[in-house]
Specification:
It is a single chain. The protein is globular and about 50 Å long. It has a domain of 91 residues: Fe-S cluster assembly (FSCA) (GMP Synthetase, Chain A, domain 3, 2-Layer Sandwich). 22% of the residues lie in helices and 16% in strands. The protein has four helices and three strands, in the order ααββαβα. It has 147 residues and is an alpha+beta fold.
Length: 147
Protein backbone atom coordinates (compact mmCIF):
# COMPACT_ATOMS: atom_id res chain seq x y z
CA UNK A 1 0.00 0.00 0.00
CA UNK A 2 1.26 3.47 -0.86
CA UNK A 3 0.13 6.84 0.42
CA UNK A 4 0.12 9.93 -1.78
CA UNK A 5 0.19 13.24 0.07
CA UNK A 6 -2.32 15.91 -0.97
CA UNK A 7 0.46 18.21 -2.19
CA UNK A 8 1.42 15.47 -4.67
CA UNK A 9 -2.10 14.87 -6.01
CA UNK A 10 -1.04 16.15 -9.43
CA UNK A 11 1.05 12.95 -9.81
CA UNK A 12 -2.28 11.10 -10.01
CA UNK A 13 -3.83 13.65 -12.36
CA UNK A 14 -5.81 15.29 -9.55
CA UNK A 15 -5.93 18.95 -8.59
CA UNK A 16 -3.75 20.03 -5.67
CA UNK A 17 -5.91 21.83 -3.12
CA UNK A 18 -4.77 25.18 -1.78
CA UNK A 19 -4.92 23.74 1.77
CA UNK A 20 -2.30 21.18 0.76
CA UNK A 21 -0.04 23.93 -0.60
CA UNK A 22 0.16 26.31 2.36
CA UNK A 23 -0.03 26.58 6.10
CA UNK A 24 -3.45 27.07 7.69
CA UNK A 25 -3.76 30.66 8.98
CA UNK A 26 -6.86 30.19 11.17
CA UNK A 27 -6.47 31.28 14.82
CA UNK A 28 -5.15 28.38 16.93
CA UNK A 29 -7.94 26.79 18.99
CA UNK A 30 -9.30 23.33 19.80
CA UNK A 31 -11.83 23.89 17.00
CA UNK A 32 -9.03 24.61 14.52
CA UNK A 33 -7.19 21.46 15.64
CA UNK A 34 -10.40 19.41 15.39
CA UNK A 35 -11.09 20.81 11.90
CA UNK A 36 -7.60 19.83 10.73
CA UNK A 37 -7.95 16.37 12.31
CA UNK A 38 -11.15 15.89 10.30
CA UNK A 39 -8.88 15.78 7.22
CA UNK A 40 -6.99 12.72 8.56
CA UNK A 41 -8.33 9.36 7.41
CA UNK A 42 -7.32 5.80 8.18
CA UNK A 43 -6.51 4.43 4.70
CA UNK A 44 -8.61 1.35 5.48
CA UNK A 45 -11.71 3.25 6.71
CA UNK A 46 -13.34 6.08 4.71
CA UNK A 47 -14.21 8.14 7.82
CA UNK A 48 -12.06 10.83 9.43
CA UNK A 49 -10.43 10.09 12.79
CA UNK A 50 -12.56 12.64 14.70
CA UNK A 51 -15.85 11.11 13.54
CA UNK A 52 -14.41 7.65 14.18
CA UNK A 53 -13.98 8.71 17.82
CA UNK A 54 -10.22 8.09 17.77
CA UNK A 55 -9.29 11.47 19.30
CA UNK A 56 -9.42 11.29 23.10
CA UNK A 57 -7.96 14.65 23.99
CA UNK A 58 -6.26 17.82 22.84
CA UNK A 59 -4.35 20.42 24.83
CA UNK A 60 -2.80 23.61 23.50
CA UNK A 61 0.21 24.52 25.62
CA UNK A 62 1.95 27.90 25.33
CA UNK A 63 5.72 27.61 24.90
CA UNK A 64 8.30 29.97 26.39
CA UNK A 65 8.70 32.79 23.96
CA UNK A 66 6.60 32.34 20.86
CA UNK A 67 4.28 29.58 19.72
CA UNK A 68 2.42 26.61 21.14
CA UNK A 69 2.72 22.86 21.53
CA UNK A 70 -0.34 20.77 20.75
CA UNK A 71 -0.65 17.56 22.78
CA UNK A 72 -3.02 15.00 21.31
CA UNK A 73 -4.15 11.70 22.79
CA UNK A 74 -5.58 9.34 20.25
CA UNK A 75 -6.35 5.68 19.92
CA UNK A 76 -6.77 3.15 17.14
CA UNK A 77 -9.66 0.86 16.33
CA UNK A 78 -7.41 -2.09 17.23
CA UNK A 79 -4.09 -2.26 19.11
CA UNK A 80 -2.43 -4.18 16.26
CA UNK A 81 -3.39 -1.64 13.59
CA UNK A 82 -0.69 -1.64 10.93
CA UNK A 83 -1.42 1.97 10.03
CA UNK A 84 -0.68 3.43 13.48
CA UNK A 85 2.58 5.14 12.48
CA UNK A 86 1.02 6.50 9.27
CA UNK A 87 -1.94 7.97 11.18
CA UNK A 88 0.28 9.40 13.90
CA UNK A 89 2.57 11.01 11.30
CA UNK A 90 -0.43 12.46 9.41
CA UNK A 91 -1.78 13.99 12.63
CA UNK A 92 1.62 15.47 13.53
CA UNK A 93 2.19 16.85 10.03
CA UNK A 94 -1.25 18.40 9.58
CA UNK A 95 -1.50 19.93 13.06
CA UNK A 96 2.03 21.34 12.74
CA UNK A 97 0.81 23.46 9.80
CA UNK A 98 -1.63 25.40 12.01
CA UNK A 99 -0.63 29.01 12.62
CA UNK A 100 1.38 29.35 15.85
CA UNK A 101 2.13 25.65 16.32
CA UNK A 102 5.81 25.00 17.01
CA UNK A 103 5.54 21.42 18.36
CA UNK A 104 3.07 18.55 18.12
CA UNK A 105 3.10 15.62 20.51
CA UNK A 106 0.85 12.68 19.65
CA UNK A 107 0.38 9.90 22.18
CA UNK A 108 -1.35 6.71 21.05
CA UNK A 109 -3.25 5.22 23.99
CA UNK A 110 -5.42 2.13 24.37
CA UNK A 111 -7.34 3.01 27.52
CA UNK A 112 -10.18 3.33 27.44
CA UNK A 113 -10.48 0.88 24.59
CA UNK A 114 -12.10 2.17 21.41
CA UNK A 115 -15.50 0.73 20.47
CA UNK A 116 -18.04 1.66 17.77
CA UNK A 117 -20.16 3.67 20.23
CA UNK A 118 -17.46 6.40 20.07
CA UNK A 119 -18.26 7.11 16.41
CA UNK A 120 -20.43 10.03 15.39
CA UNK A 121 -23.90 9.25 14.11
CA UNK A 122 -22.78 10.19 10.58
CA UNK A 123 -19.83 7.77 10.77
CA UNK A 124 -22.04 4.93 12.03
CA UNK A 125 -24.51 5.58 9.21
CA UNK A 126 -21.73 5.70 6.62
CA UNK A 127 -20.25 2.41 7.86
CA UNK A 128 -23.61 0.69 8.44
CA UNK A 129 -23.33 0.36 12.24
CA UNK A 130 -26.38 0.01 14.47
CA UNK A 131 -27.42 3.45 15.71
CA UNK A 132 -29.00 2.10 18.92
CA UNK A 133 -25.66 2.27 20.75
CA UNK A 134 -25.30 5.41 22.82
CA UNK A 135 -21.88 7.03 23.14
CA UNK A 136 -19.90 5.72 26.09
CA UNK A 137 -18.47 8.06 28.70
CA UNK A 138 -14.74 8.22 29.17
CA UNK A 139 -12.37 9.05 31.99
CA UNK A 140 -10.53 11.28 29.49
CA UNK A 141 -11.87 14.45 27.88
CA UNK A 142 -13.11 13.30 24.51
CA UNK A 143 -13.84 15.27 21.38
CA UNK A 144 -17.50 14.69 20.75
CA UNK A 145 -18.14 15.18 17.04
CA UNK A 146 -20.50 18.03 16.33
CA UNK A 147 -19.83 19.93 19.56
Amino acid sequence: MYRVDGKDADALGLAVSSAAKSDVQEELSEKAVRDVLRTVFDPEIPVNIVDMGLIYGCAIVPLDGDGHRVDIKMTLTAPGCGMSEVLKADVERKVSHLHGVKEVKVEVVFFPAWDPSRMSEAARLQLGFDLDESPSESALPVFRPGR
